[in-house]
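ok here's the first one, seq then C-alpha cells
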Amino acid sequence: MPSGGFRKRSVGDLPLEQGTPVLARVDFNVPLDGGTVTDDARIRAALPTIELLREAGARVVLCSHLGRPEGRDPESSLRPASNRLAELMGAPVEQAAEVVGPTVREAVEALAPGEVLALENTRWEAGETTNDPELAKELAGLADAYVNDAFGAAHRAHASTTGVAQHLPSAAGLLLEREVTTLEGIVEAPARPLVVVLGGAKVSDKIALIDRFLERADAILIGGAMCFSFFRAQGRPTGDSLVEEEGIELARDALAAAKRSDCRLLLPTDLVVGDRFDAGAERSELDGVEVPDGWMGLDVGARTAERYAAEIAGAATVLWNGPMGAFEFEPFAGGTRAVAEAIAAAPGTTVVGGGDSAAALAQFGLADRVSHLSTGGGAALELLEGNALPGVEALDDA
C-alpha cells in the first residue's frame, strides 16, 4: 500500500557486528492458560525480526511486558512465552529470572552470537510504566543497540519502549515498520473506494476515528452496541440495549458532520435482539431498529449484514475495527460472521485491527485471509486517529 515512506531507521539498516548485543522490545503480551500460551500470534509476528538479528550474529536480548502485575508475580512470568518462542524457532531461549541486575548482565555476556535471552516481565519493575530514567539506563546497559518491534506497546511511553532508545542506536523492527506503513497508508493514500467498518460498545472509543475518516473514507459502516447511541441521537427507542449515554451527543455531532461530508455514514436497518445478554437468551429478529422494552440489541440483522457485505465487496480498501454484535454467542454471531467473510473474500486491501475483531476472525477460521491483521489495538487506533506513537517517535530517524 502506498505511504509517505517510513521515517525511522529500520532494523535492516542497523550496523551490527558478529556478537553485538541487541536489546529487542517485543510484544509477548499473550493469553495464558495454566502456563500455556493459548494464542501465539504476537510471538509469531516477532519471529522475522528475531531471526534477522540471529542471522546477523547478534546476541539477542528480548524484553516484553505480560499483563498488568503489581510487582514480581510468578503467574505473569514470561517463561511460557519464551518456551513457545523456542518451539517456534527450533532453538533454545534462555529465560532470565529478573529484568535487570548483575545476573542478567552475566547471562547476556554468556550468550554466543545468534543466541537468545528473554528478560523477565518488564512490568515487574515499578519504573517501567513511569519511564524511569534509571531503569531505562539499566536496560540500555545490557546492549549496544536497541530495536523496537512491539507495535502493541508503541503508544506507551515506558522505560522499555521510549526511555531506553535515548541511550542506544535504535531502529524499528520489521513488524513495527510494517504496521506503521500499512496503517498510515490507509489514511494517506488508500486505493478507493475506502470502506471503514466500525463496531464495539462505545462511540467515545471510536469518535476520533469516525471524525477523521468522515474526511477520508467513501463509507463508514456502524455496528455493535455503539449503534444504539446513534439511534438514541435520532430519537429512536433502544429498549434494554447497551447505550453509552455520553456517546449520544458525540453520535449526534457525527451524524451532522456526515451530512456535510462526501462520506456515507451507514447505520443498521434491522437488528437481532435477545431478552438478556446470554448465549441462551430468547432470540428475535426485528424488521427495523426500534427495540422494544425488555429486549436488547445483540447483533445487526440479515438485511444490514447483506448490505454491509456488498459495500465491502465493492471496496478497494477495507479497514475493520470492532465486531457487529455479541459474536461470542453463536445465536448473535451472524452479523460479525457476515462482515468477516466479506472482508476475507474482498478483492482489495483488507486491514483488521482491535482484539475483538482479531478474535472474531480466529473464531471463524479467517485470520489468514486478510491483507494485514494488526497486533496492536490501542496503538492502531492512536495511529489511525493521527496521533504520534511515543515508541516510534523515540527511534532514530532514517
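and now the second one, same deal
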Amino acid sequence: MTTIARTSPSFCDRLRLLDSTPVPCAQSRETVKRSHLAGHGGYGYCASHSRFFWGFRLYLLCAPDGMPIAFELAAANAPEREVALGLLERALEPGQTLIVDKGFAGAEFEEIVCSYGATLLRPDRADEEPRFGSLGRVRQWIESIVYTAKDQLSLERHGARTLEGLVARIAQRLLALAAGCWHNWLLGTPGRHFTAYDH
C-alpha cells in the first residue's frame, strides 16, 4: 500500500485527511466472550450511529483523492488522540495540513501536531470561538473515503475471527483502495471512481 501511495501523484499533495471508523467484531455478549479477539478488542461508542459496539477502530490517514497513506488499528476503547498521534508521528510530514473532525479537538493534540511541522484544521465546536468554520465540504471527502472502504470494499463485513485475520483483511481492503486510486490516475480519471469495478 505504501509503495503504491508513494508512486501516486497525490502523495505529493500537502493536504492530509484523518478519521477513525468502527470495525465491529461481535454482536452479542456471548460472542464476545468466545471470540479469539477477546483481550484485543474493546467496547467503544460510535457517535454517528449513536450506538455502542465491540471490536476495534480503524484510523486512516489519506490524501484528498482517497489514496490511503497510513493506518492504525486499535481497540475501540483506546484513547483516540493517543492512537492518532502515534500514527501521525510516523506518517505526517512537515509542511502538510491535516484536517480532522471535532473528536480530535484539544490544545495538547494541536500543539503536538504543530510540533511535527504541520498545520491542524478541524471544524469549530459550539463551545469555542470561531476559527475554521464547519469545514463541511472538506470533511465529506474523508467520510466518503471511509464509506468506500466500508461499503464497496466490504470492510464492515470482514468476517475475521482472529487478530491476524482481521489485520490481513483490513490491509487487503486498503490495498484495493490504493490500487484503485492509482489505476484511475493511469487512466486519467484521478479519484475514487470505483463504480466500474463493481460489475
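notes on #2: The domain at 2-193 is CATH 3.30.420.10 (Nucleotidyltransferase; domain 5). The helical segments are 2-6, 29-34, 80-91, 107-115, 136-152, 163-187.
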